[in-house]
């Protein structure tokens, strides 16, 4: 017996009464089938509904062979009548997201002829994959038009056209459809075959926001949010910007310019620090002029500073130079070099003996090790 789909009769149905037709242990707890349900099963890129049947938690909903299966945490008595309650705010959010995706996809298809070739409602972001490239200006125009559709509060209609009507309808679909086809129409924005749930007017979406666009296969992947999810995400961004504004002593609308100035100042400081380090390395290197083999342990330094210190000593040293910067607890970054030498076997042995990784040119290698100073000293003592 096919389950009656109350979510198609009234997309705003939050509670309902239903008879338990079957209940069996499954991979996800207990699989419960009802004679009717307002729980939407996963499909069309939209996750299945969650909620309660009586006092039993429904963790997901799927459809199989015309039956809608509710994944429940506990068993329900077959033949009993239960009250179903869907997680309404979650469902409303999904309807906002799904309707917003339709608007964006319809606009992109009309403006550029691109197909929506992938759609996923993730926990953090909704992704839409399009079959062609979009520029930053394209995205701004698409987002603006999409929100104009929201502001105009257009109707979102569900129809089941006849086969003859379907042939004349310019609807979006990934494949040719036959039989009972459910068409979602958003006035002057989109016509698409879809089995999902949507709000009935575009004004209920509230906001459509594109957050990122990256190249994906032959086209692009957009990250978007709509409705309450967009509202919550934008609020988090605004809170972050408020904190950054206070840290940078700048107006919220001027944090980018302030951050750029700070980045320039930091680059100048780093350059001056690098110059001072080079002067220090040159002075310290004089103590090792003419030495054959040098093994040094220094406090933590950046890999670039370790390299520059090794270069400074290499200029006046005739043998092998090994510099380790760090400590026994966190490990050491190293530079190993020898003028006109070949240290590949030494580096290989060092990494093996001292839990290290790294490499480079035959005469100059860099990497890191997780070993104690005593272990490292013992390793180089064994080399002679």
Characterization of the model:
With 384 residues, the chain is α+β, with helices and mostly antiparallel strands. The chain folds into 3 domains: 4-86, Elongation Factor Tu (Ef-tu), domain 3 (Beta Barrel); 92-235, Threonyl-trna Synthetase, Chain A, domain 2 (Threonyl-tRNA Synthetase, Chain A, domain 2), CATH 3.30.980.10; 282-383, Roll (Diaminopimelate Epimerase, Chain A, domain 1), CATH 3.10.310. 36% of the residues lie in helices and 31% in strands. It contains 9 helices and 20 strands. The protein has helices at 6-9, 88-112, 136-151, 163-168, 227-248, 255-285, 303-314, 344-353, 373-383, and strands at residues 4-5, 15-26, 29-34, 36-37, 51-53, 56-64, 67-72, 81-86, 116-121, 126-130, 156-159, 183-186, 190-193, 208-216, 219-226, 294-298, 320-327, 331-338, 356-361, 364-369. A 6-stranded antiparallel beta barrel has the order 2-3-7-6-5-8. Strands 16-17-18-20-19 form a 5-stranded mixed β-sheet, with helices on both faces. The protein has a 4-stranded antiparallel β-sheet with strand order 9-10-15-14.
């Amino acid at each position: 017996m096919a389950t009656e789909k109350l979510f198609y009769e009234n997309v705003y149905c939050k509670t309902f009464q239903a008879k338990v037709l079957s209940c069996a242990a499954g991979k996800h707890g207990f699989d419960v089938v009802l004679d009717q349900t307002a729980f939407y099963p996963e499909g069309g890129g939209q996750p299945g509904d969650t909620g309660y049947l009586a006092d039993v938690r429904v963790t997901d909903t799927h459809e199989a062979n015309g039956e809608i299966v509710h994944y429940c945490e506990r068993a329900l008595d077959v033949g009993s009548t239960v009250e179903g309650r869907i997680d309404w705010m979650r469902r409303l959010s999904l309807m906002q997201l799904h309707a917003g995706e339709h608007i964006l996809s319809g606009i992109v298809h009309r403006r550029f002829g691109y197909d929506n070739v992938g759609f996923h409602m993730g926990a953090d972001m909704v992704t839409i994959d399009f079959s062609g490239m979009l520029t930053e200006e394209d995205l701004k125009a698409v987002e603006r038009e999409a929100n104009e559709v929201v502001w105009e509060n257009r109707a979102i209609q569900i129809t089941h056209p006849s086969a003859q009507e379907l042939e004349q309808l310019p609807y979006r679909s990934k494949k040719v459809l036959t039989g009972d086809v459910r068409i979602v129409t958003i006035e002057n924005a989109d016509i698409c075959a879809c089995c999902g749930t949507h709000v009935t007017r575009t004004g209920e979406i509230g906001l459509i926001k594109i957050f990122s666009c990256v190249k994906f296969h032959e086209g692009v992947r957009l990250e978007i949010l709509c409705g309450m999810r967009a509202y919550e995400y934008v609020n988090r961004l605004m809170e972050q910007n408020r904190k950054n504004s206070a840290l940078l002593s700048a107006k919220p609308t001027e944090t980018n310019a302030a951050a750029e100035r700070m980045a320039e100042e930091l680059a100048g400081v780093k350059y001056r620090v690098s110059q001072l380090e080079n002067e220090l390395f040159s002075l310290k290197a004089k103590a090792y002029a003419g030495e054959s083999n040098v093994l040094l342990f220094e406090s933590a330094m950046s890999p670039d500073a370790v390299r520059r210190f090794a270069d400074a000593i290499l200029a006046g040293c005739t043998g092998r130079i090994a510099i380790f910067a760090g400590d026994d607890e966190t490990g050491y970054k190293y530079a190993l070099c020898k003028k006109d030498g070949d240290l590949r076997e030494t580096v290989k042995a060092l990494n093996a003996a001292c839990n290290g990784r790294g490499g480079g040119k035959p005469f100059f290698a860099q990497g890191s090790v997780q070993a104690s100073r005593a272990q490292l000293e013992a390793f180089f003592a064994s080399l002679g």
